[in-house]
């Protein structure tokens, strides 16, 4: 049973209890899987996929191939060749087509088989490779895995104002996406999780009171401090947060506080990708200084131990949490704590409080939507977030 | 079917057959789990836990946090914070309290929540972190996981006589604790398992006849040699052996034959900890020589390949058993053979003989007790082993 | 549903569809397990087992011990000692007997227990270690795991003509044996899978039309080229191919095109061994050149990254298929593609074509035989392949 502190008065505490419906799964065919497949999913940084290359990806418990044609077009197709199940990413990209490594069957980017070197004529027209709508925006590759017409693209507006769009390295995190998304609604954690290293010290001085409102496009959340200042954070349905955050530990404060747009893309029920685009509010000479520091940060990253190795050492007790320093310190800290809750957190054993108001509201929304989907009833039509609702630093 | 050689006449051979009850499991709720939770369990060497530090532990298929307060007090608490399931060992030890890394909830060493920085007043008193009685003895940390009042502490007397108490490094061994405990009842094995390297040559000259007696505190076992000498080994219920053994291979004979007190603590049904305290019978100048050799042994250990790597190479056939040398050679040999029986040995396929008399008796006792527990009937009340029953080298 | 291209006219396309019977499993007790146990299985290269040594093996989901007596005789016995389940390969080979590491029980190579050092007389005669017929041929060790009298030995004739018999290193491949055996029936793959590096360029110039015939000893398969030349490949039941192939990439063309005899031995349903003996058609001075190059190849192999590491990097997308070079390039390519089909390929989702005629015929034969076995009906009595049916290069 989830006990909720009475102070969380504006919320329907009943619905925050462990819902009978599985809100964490995104497997195909589950209510959560249908829900999530209404939205474009961020897959990777555009810069990670050169023209002419293909790679394997796994999204919401299904495997795919992602390739970029010679023209520059990115395309998601099935993992395997329909002939005998070879992995398509081992093959060759030719123009915007892809050819299987096993017997040279070639498919255009609509999925139509257009060559079968050892077969007779007429067979290829019967064979198709499943393809999925694929688009790029703000340095990221997105795909749509739902049925029917895809949702409008781009799924969210570019952050307002001048600055440098900077996609961070993508991390694969060994836990369910939802507990990471919940963490973004949990503003209090920064005062503790990120205390070692001090990156979030300015957010830790006095703790905010959390409130949240459902919107057509997701959830708008407020952190109100004793001094009356209010931090606004945008939670775009179903798995994206837009928020103003401190610079990464390894940036030594250079570049100021960026707006980040942070997708928590399910790999499967036990793993997710963290795909982050930051927009650093720097122009002119400051931009040069930022880019120089950014390059130094990359060198630090390359020299540092892998994030997951540090996390494993924290979990085993080999490293001591308070002692760890790393260029991506906040990432190490967040993964250690969030994935440390378990692959899928056991939500039946929690004691939620008033500081969990954002989490409670989002679970209520999610449970409501998933129940409607499970019952085959009409459910909410989410809209693209408007450009004029922006995050506010509020400190 | 377990065939028992007729020579094992004093024992009820029927009960030595694979009992219908699972004697190997210690999972919570199983008869074996209830049985084992009547006793204090050795967890770790005291020296492995500095004041102010916390670490994760897993005992009998359940996860916990072990920490040492600033006062020096060791305490076992639940693995996870009751709020949102963060791992407690990632947090901070403050005085003798522990604070969660995620939102700073603080618990005293009785488990009472005493601070919730972002919550209103009155909530914390409703929240408790499960705690478990924790004590130290002879350089080891013990905890009690049973219901009700803990068994008397310490669970066994200090070995008699002068000497140096020396906890060995703890090993995690990839098999069920019971087959390791059975191995301690199996005196004949030393003549073969430890033949390479020759550490047990004095015990291998003529093979003893094994007999055993149930005691209020466990089992007393005898190895009678042709020359009439009798070796006495003490098996303290449920998983501890006290015995006089040869020095480790890397000690090159220095320190003489120590008394060891050896706990086989279940991690889960497939793994156990070997926690050993030796008492070397050395005083005065001999003690200095011993301590110098002991320090050299540590250097040898640090330079040697990890024990489990050697074991894996033996299992795969990459290394040849007769060729292996290692400072902890007997440990390598014992783990290779015992964990090589399988994670949980298949006791239905054995051919037991008269040399297995100790194992046969202990299985009979264990099966009897577990059956009584399974049937909800009164079962044996075990006593603390008396100080005047001591192991005898008997060669 | 498996769609079969109409061009595959001579075959019963129905039976090529995913059969209702599991044709991939070789677990004991399954129809496939019974079928496979009618044949001698290649286990290892003879040169990998020195006299006096023992090693663990796993064949068709069962574990065994393989040892070579002091006389040179190789013998397969059970994995575990019947006494208390210790791994037999940890023990000692004495003459042609094997002694258990745990308590010194000794078994002769017929499996009879002949010594039990700590037991009374009369017990040992009741104890046997299971043994399995074991023979050697052409540099390989074979064993027979079926019931009753073993099939005739050797299971196939030596390749005709002069030359050097050269067993390649054995590889463990992480997929079911059947998809590897099917790959040997799939002559078209070489033009694509082995295109990078160019080892099979002479076979890729024009693609053959594939046909196949069932024989008393397996399947004879033809690849007919536009110029009328016909390549003959021999598929010995149940898992051996004899074929003329290009030299390995690292041989730089030296030694010419060898005849290889290639066993795909199931380790379990998810893994198999590739055990290959090549016969290079070289004599006299050419043989010396060949042996020198062969030694250089071994040095290249030792210096190259392990085959499975390269394969894993191909699967993850870290390496690009077209870029990889390796002394065993064709092996890397074949494992990446075949094991990349999945541990057990999903045969229900294929679109087979006329180039799959060999695969289609073999599946039909296999399904027919397994169904007869499942129904307890008389099934085919396979014969030893005759020496006068030989592979033909046909290009």
Give an overview in words.
The structure is a homotrimer of 395-residue chains. Chain A is an alpha+beta fold and 395 residues long. In chain A, 20% of the residues lie in helices and 26% in strands. The first copy, chain A, contains eight helices and 21 strands. Chain A has helices at 13-16, 31-36, 177-184, 190-193, 284-303, 307-316, 329-338, 357-374, and strands spanning 3-4, 40-45, 54-59, 62-68, 74-78, 92-94, 97-99, 106-107, 113-115, 131-132, 134-137, 140-144, 164-167, 171-173, 209-215, 218-224, 230-236, 240-244, 259-268, 271-280, 351-352. In chain A, strands 13, 14, 15, 16, 17, 18, 19 and 20 form an eight-stranded antiparallel β-sheet that branches. In chain A, a hairpin with a 2-residue loop joins strand 6 (92-94) and strand 7 (97-99). In chain A, helix 6 packs across helix 7 (329-338). Chain A is globular, with a radius of gyration of 22 Å. The first copy, chain A, starts with a strand and ends in a 21-residue tail after the last helix. Chains in contact: A-B, A-C, B-C. Chains B and C meet through helix 4, helix 6 and strand 21 of B and strand 3 of C.
């Amino acid at each position: 049973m989830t006990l909720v502190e009475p102070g969380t008065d504006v919320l329907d505490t009943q619905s925050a209890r462990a819902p009978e419906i599985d809100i964490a799964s995104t497997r195909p065919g589950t209510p959560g899987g249908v829900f999530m497949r209404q939205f474009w999913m961020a897959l990777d940084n555009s810069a990670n996929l050169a023209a002419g290359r293909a790679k394997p990806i796994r999204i919401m418990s299904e495997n795919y191939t992602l390739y970029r044609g010679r023209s520059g077009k990115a395309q998601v197709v099935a993992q395997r060749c329909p002939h005998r199940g070879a992995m398509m990413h081992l093959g060759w990209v030719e123009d915007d087509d892809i050819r299987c490594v096993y017997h040279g069957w070639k498919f255009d980017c609509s999925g139509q088989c257009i060559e079968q070197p050892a077969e007779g004529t007429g067979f290829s027209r019967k064979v198709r490779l499943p393809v999925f709508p694929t688009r790029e925006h703000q340095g990221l590759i997105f795909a749509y895995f739902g049925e029917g017409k895809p949702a409008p693209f781009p799924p969210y507006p570019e952050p307002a104002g001048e600055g440098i769009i900077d996609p961070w390295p993508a991390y694969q995190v060994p836990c369910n996406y939802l507990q990471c998304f919940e963490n973004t609604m949990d503003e209090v954690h920064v005062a503790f999780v990120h205390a070692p290293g001090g990156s979030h010290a300015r957010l830790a001085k006095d703790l905010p009171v959390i409130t949240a409102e459902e919107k057509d496009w997701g959830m708008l959340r407020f952190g109100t401090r004793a001094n009356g200042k209010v931090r606004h954070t945008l939670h775009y349905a179903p798995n994206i947060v837009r928020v103003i955050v401190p610079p990464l530990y390894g940036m030594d404060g250079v570049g100021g506080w960026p707006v980040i747009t942070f997708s928590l893309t399910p790999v499967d029920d036990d793993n997710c990708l963290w795909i982050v685009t930051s927009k650093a509010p720097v122009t002119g000479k400051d931009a040069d200084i930022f880019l120089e520091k950014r390059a130094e940060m990359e060198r630090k990253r390359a020299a540092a131990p892998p994030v997951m190795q540090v996390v494993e050492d924290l979990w085993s007790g080999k490293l001591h949490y308070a002692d760890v320093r790393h260029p991506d310190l906040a990432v190490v800290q967040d993964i250690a704590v969030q994935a440390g809750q378990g692959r899928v957190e056991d939500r039946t054993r929690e004691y939620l409080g008033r500081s969990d108001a954002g989490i409670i509201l989002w679970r209520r929304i999610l449970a409501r939507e998933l129940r409607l989907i499970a019952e085959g009833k009409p459910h909410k039509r989410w809209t693209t977030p408007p450009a004029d609702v922006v995050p506010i630093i509020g400190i």
